[in-house]
Amino acid sequence: xxxxxxxxxxxxxxxxxxxxxxxxxxxxxxxxxxxxxxxxxxxxxxxxxxxxxxxxxxxxxxxxxxxxxxxxxxxxxxxxxxxxxxxxxxxxxxxxxxxxxxxxxxxxxxxxxxxxxxxxxxxxxxxxxxxxxxxxxxxxxxxxxxxxxxxxxxxxxxxxxxxxxxxxxxxxxxxxxxxxxxxxxxxxxxxxxxxxxxxxxxxxxxxxxxxxxxxxxxxxxxxxxxxxxxxxxxxxxxxxxxxxxxxxxxxxxx
Amino acid sequence: xxxxxxxxxxxxxxxxxxxxxxxxxxxxxxxxxxxxxxxxxxxxxxxxxxxxxxxxxxxxxxxxxxxxxxxxxxxxxxxxxxxxxxxxxxxxxxxxxxxxxxxxxxxxxxxxxxxxxxxxxxxxxxxxxxxxxxxxxxxxxxxxxxxxxxxxxxxxxxxxxxxxxxxxxxxxxxxxxxxxxxxxxxxxxxxxxxxxxxxxxxxxxxxxxxxxxxxxxxxxxxxxxxxxxxxxxxxxxxxxxxxxxxxxxxxxxxxxxxxxxxxxxxxxxxxxxxxxxxxxxxxxxxxxxxxxxxxxxxxxxxxxxxxxxxxxxxxxxxxxxxxxxxxxxx
Lengths: 254, 330
Hints:
The complex is a heterodimer of chains A (254) and B (330).
Chain A: H1 3-26, H2 35-63, H3 69-74, H4 85-88, H5 94-115, H6 121-149, H7 153-166, H8 171-174, H9 178-185, H10 192-209, H11 233-241, H12 243-247
Chain B: H1 21-31, H2 44-63, H3 65-72, H4 78-103, H5 109-117, H6 135-155, H7 161-191, H8 194-213, H9 225-230, H10 238-256, E1 266-268, E2 273-275, H11 281-289, H12 295-308, H13 310-329
């Protein structure tokens, strides 16, 4: 795989995962369990969509076909999306929302930490800025895992169920493919083994502190999002998100 | 914004002579433009009126997130999506800030929210109208936040210190939202397709009158205003504020190249103001009573959020208590 192509794919993965999770969080507007959470959820979503825009802008430039960041977000179909399956999963109850967030934030944090030292300066710049935001995201979602895991009997059960429900999507976070490894070799992407062990270490630590049971290491994993094969959810997310640009293809400004 | 009709519970305003020494001292402070602070003595009716007004205002910020939440998942570009998200985040912040100001009066946030969900507390009627096309995100910013600002700029001088300070902070952000909203409409009108321009006019047609209703009943129908004015909770009458809003908005409407759904709207040289048609007060009172297009949905959504979040809040509380116990044991 040539590096240009790998980089293009990798940038879309970063952008799409942030975009889709941001979109899922937007769905919660006005529906959070407290006003403080309304503010925090929208704040995290805002960071994520902002980061997506930065990755898309770079991806669009690299591609050099005249597509814009908006084109990448609003004019690609599901099979062209490269986000992790985790982020397209429905919001569920607040335990599911927060478990999804925590699994992703942990991956996001260690990925950005690696990317902040990327040989690609543009990537290093975007990642360094995003890392500040994501450090807060991770601190917040880890706190919620502990609160709900070690809160009441009901919240403990709900959080345990959420961890069990989403566990099958965690394998994709820590399994490198050719895109990841070739960019790692070029010093652009972080060390994939290190990323996997950092992710596992953090997740184990937080779940244990939250009095939650860890999931079996040999659990079956559902993968494919990074390569463009998604769950049924993504099509509906895009149908909603892309409605206006698709319904009014002649519109050049909004 | 958005306290349109606030009961004061007062039938007639007392003269200084009729007042007790405490009341007189209080009224003299107000008359001298000295701010009332949480620890100062205040008449019970003043305190209750303020709780009603500030809670209405806070509820409006939170309920007001819903018509925008209706489009935030469908914002057409990254820039517009980010702007709308930032606006919604600000509104949640305003809600929190206002609930805090209300709590300084000894009210409980949970109890006031409970009243909202039981239909006993009001919020601005404007949010009971649906947002039916994307241009509504521009019009809401321009007209709804615009009307809110006219009201709130005056409330920066309101007599209760914490409320006044909340207004100063909130006004800055609202002005920004209003400019952004207007820019959405301006861009659509200047560079949009025919369909997009129609969206803008349709949006203005639907939201024009409801925006004018945001200032509340006309002065002769507003029996509570007089006491609120004497206490300087309110500083200008509903009709004065409405006229200010219309006068500043019509030139902006013309600049857009759009029209208002009011055949009587025209400049009156003699008055130095725009004349405008009669508001449909029946509709205003219907919506206030709960019979607007989205009243049920808005309250149901808010109630569901808080009800379904009960276990989350309980867990957070239980966890905090456990942590505290651990710290004490250590």
